[in-house]
Amino acid sequence: MNGRYRNGVRVGIIDGTTIAQSIRDDVAQKIKVFRAQYPQFQPQLVVVQAGECPDSTTYIRMKAKAAEEVGIKFNHVTFPETAMAEEIIQVVKKLSDDDAVGGVHVQLPLGPNVNADDTRAVTEAVSPEKDVDGFHAYNIGHLSLRAASPLFVPCTPAAVIRLLENTGVSIAGANTVVLGRSDIVGNPVAALLRSRNATVTQCHSRTKNVEQIIANWQITVANSSLGNK
Amino acid sequence: MNGRYRNGVRVGIIDGTTIAQSIRDDVAQKIKVFRAQYPQFQPQLVVVQAGECPDSTTYIRMKAKAAEEVGIKFNHVTFPETAMAEEIIQVVKKLSDDDAVGGVHVQLPLGPNVNADDTRAVTEAVSPEKDVDGFHAYNIGHLSLRAASPLFVPCTPAAVIRLLENTGVSIAGANTVVLGRSDIVGNPVAALLRSRNATVTQCHSRTKNVEQIIANWQITVANSSLGNK
User: Domain residue spans in chain B?
Assistant: First the structure.
């Protein structure tokens, strides 16, 4: 982290682009070494999308580019926006059973016909061993266990920790605040900080005196507003 | 809670015995009503024990008594203290597959030949649908999800919440401290408080200024010392 000071507090910009590139270089190298030994092995990631939500399409394009760069075969399975959970689940299960597929990633949201409960059912149709999102209850459970050994960790929380660690800030023993308790950011970030020996206070839309709590703690992880969290 | 005051702070004794009796009465009544409609249905709980740790034996005797009182058939499967994880797993899987068994409870610890990883494997040999302890990663995962809908909740944390609710203290919006981050108490209590809209700070052996944190918060859940937590 670049060290500048403002009002006596060190402020810095974390260079995520460079860190991301070093992660991709590392993955590419590992795949190369592994394939030199097992040439018939071809890692493959399949992304499942329903509809064409522009944000999702952009994310998927970026994932495809990153996969290609590191030597992971990328496959994109699309459903119309009107798809029902049952048909998506059927395909997700088939992909989970396919030995040629190493990772199954369901891009959320899944369209207007798939409500929250159905989305959970689709998420859990992914085999925990191929759940690259780390969203299966089995992996979330292992993330919150004291031994913290999930097969996969959700990517945004994992990135938050990686970026924090890169600053040189000490997480162990720090008093930290996590704003939000969503399944994709707040809750897993809190679990990851806790397993790294931070003391975690988790704030959300029902928390009183958030400003005061933040002022007294050393690390704050925020993810947009708390309005609907 | 009986309302007495000491130094201006209300202190009270929560009458757990009476609450426990009312829960057993409620369960007994539900089973009676259900069995009047489905006489062939006989709920059955099986407890699996390895060795004869005196605490475990006492707990199991109390569970057997409570089960008998409410009309749940109780079965006790025992292994010698020297049992290996593999043989226990085999029996646990068989019980999980047995339609006559409604709940499988593995009494911990499992003896000197079963380490932490093996204990986790035994725990996950229980089908999530019969995991009355709520210790399977699948149920722990659902407990930590925002929608918080595990099939079973670990009993001590569930009791903590029930006792707290019984005091009339408002959990939603309260600033709470949980001391400890064990899988059987601290972590699930924190998840339960969070899902009831409390703001939770979780303290553990690496937390600095625990006294100060407790002094500022409204509800503290403590479970013995923090020495090894």
Answer: 42-141, 153-222
